[in-house]
Amino acid sequence: MxxxxxxxxxxxKDIALLKLALTHRSMGRSNNERLEFLGDSILGVVISRxxxxxxxxxxxxxxxxxxxxxxxxxxxxQLAGELELSDILILGPGELKSGGFRRESIQADxxxxxxxxxxxxxxxxTINTVILDLYHDLLDAINPxxxxxxxxxxLQEYLQKRSNILPKYELVKTVGKDHxxxxxxxxx
Length: 188
Prior knowledge:
It is a single chain. The protein has helices spanning 2-8, 15-21, 33-54, 60-71, 73-83, 93-97, 104-121, 124-134, 136-141, 151-161; strands spanning 169-175, 182-187. The model has no long low-confidence stretch (mean pLDDT 88). The longest helix has 22 residues, at 33-54. The protein has a two-stranded antiparallel ribbon with strand order 1-2. α3 crosses α8. Helices cover 59% and strands 7% of the residues. The protein is mostly helical. β1 and β2 (182-187) form a beta hairpin.
């Protein structure tokens, strides 16, 4: 955990908060889900505020897409990889056997939980600094002129511009558990 604290440039006063942030729910009742909830919220606020300050000429819709791109699970999993979280996640035996330490969603959740833990251990200014330091390269690389729309939205906008009929989608099946389900759709 010392290495992680160095990487996030924050030293915990209460190391138990960091340990809890790394503890998956497969370990039982004492897990990182509540910290993840808090971290998700603070991450959204910090990134929204930074985008608002950086891009004063960009409208709300584009700012929302930029924020969504930066706080999505895939981006958080990328940060988790840089922090080498898979090496220190605390998982139950079932998750360990199934390779849960490699699962991007678990790693992304842990990043959010760490943000929540830092907030509880410190204050808004500190977590603001931690998040912006971790996001420095991502924020510098983002271009508000890039289309960050998902493929479905891009297809629909393309068809609308050409006065074509929009596709209708049909739910084929849902994969995964309720809390992490993914819908499989087909175009009708």
